[in-house]
Amino acid sequence: MTDVPRDPVAGDGAIDLLLAVARRLEAIDRLTATSAAGSLADEPLLTALARTATVVLEAQAASIALHRSADDRLVFVAAAGPAAGEVVGLSIDAAAGIAGYAFATGQPLAVADVSADPRFDRTIAEATGYVPRSLLATPLIDDQGAIGVLEVLDRRDGTFSLRDLDLAATLAAEATIIVRRTQTGREATRLLRGALTALVAADGETTADPPQPEIDIDAIVSGLAVRLADDADDPTWRLADQLARLLASDPDRLELAVDWLDALLRRTDRHAGRAGSPGTGRR
């Protein structure tokens, strides 16, 4: 097991407490893992989903844009098809174009002829040289709100259908999970770093001892992450991984697994009750 740099101010107890928090956040991350995370682990996941969209919907191109709240813009972070390399990194106003309409309203839509739709924004088309004829846009959205848009361009054998909108919504839901999971990981790291910094600062204000050496907060946080990875063989994580795989492969079987766990817990409770009941001689 790799040693974690120990904070000489905060002490082992504080580090262990933060590690426990990190483990619980890691458990949430594992249990919300999806089939996309499992099968496309060797590729940037959002780019892989854009590629999947072109295959499943028989389209020429696809892209994923995420909302950047700092300047209220949609930033294209993944793309597939012609001009994919030029699309990534570009941005548009969050209310602009058909993508902006899907993001702002939370509603998917398909446009058979973009040249006849007043909502069409030519900014990206002019920047990349690729002008679509037809377009499908669906928001990346969940209970917390919209975070971006999946766009699919130019169906090869005609216009996009209602079935295509349903398929695109499924892919957008996968993308939303991936983005949220990434955000959770970043937020967890930020919280750990902030907690450690606060502990060091608080101790520095109350102690009369000579000043301590500067604490490498980043090294401590990185060390915690290494310890989490080293704990991969822990039965708790094996159970979490198996449940995540089961959820990805067949949600119905997950319900069966929950029933098995309930039965095991009831049996364990009955056994514990017999073991501690009067007259058994056992405690």
Describe the structure.
The protein contains 10 helices and 6 strands, in the order H-H-H-E-E-H-E-H-E-H-E-E-H-H-H-H. Helix content is 55%, strand content 15%. The protein has helices at 11-31, 35-39, 45-56, 84-87, 97-105, 123-128, 162-206, 217-230, 235-249, 251-276, and strands at 59-68, 73-80, 91-93, 109-111, 135-142, 145-155. The chain has a 6-stranded antiparallel β-sheet with strand order 3-2-1-6-5-4, sandwiched between helices. It starts with 10 loop residues before the first helix and ends in a 7-residue tail after the last helix. It is α+β, with helices and mostly antiparallel strands and 283 residues long. It has 2 domains: 11-33 and 183-272, no CATH class; 40-181, Beta-Lactamase.
The count of domains is 2
Order of strands, main sheet, comes to 3-2-1-6-5-4
Distance from first to last alpha carbon: 36 Å
CATH level-3 fold name of the largest domain? Beta-Lactamase
CATH architecture heading of the largest domain: 2-Layer Sandwich
Number of helices: 10
Give the CATH class of the largest domain: Alpha Beta
How is the main sheet built? 6 strands, antiparallel
Q: What proportion of the residues form beta strands (DSSP E)?
A: 15-25%
Mean of residue pLDDT? 74
Q: What percent of the residues sit in helical stretches (DSSP H or I)?
A: 55-70%
CATH superfamily of the largest domain: GAF domain
Low-confidence stretches: 1-11, 31-43, 279-283
Principal-axis shape equals: globular
Strand and helix order:
HHHEEHEHEHEEHHHH
Structural class: alpha+beta
What's the gyration radius in Å?
25 Å
- Number of E-state strands: 6
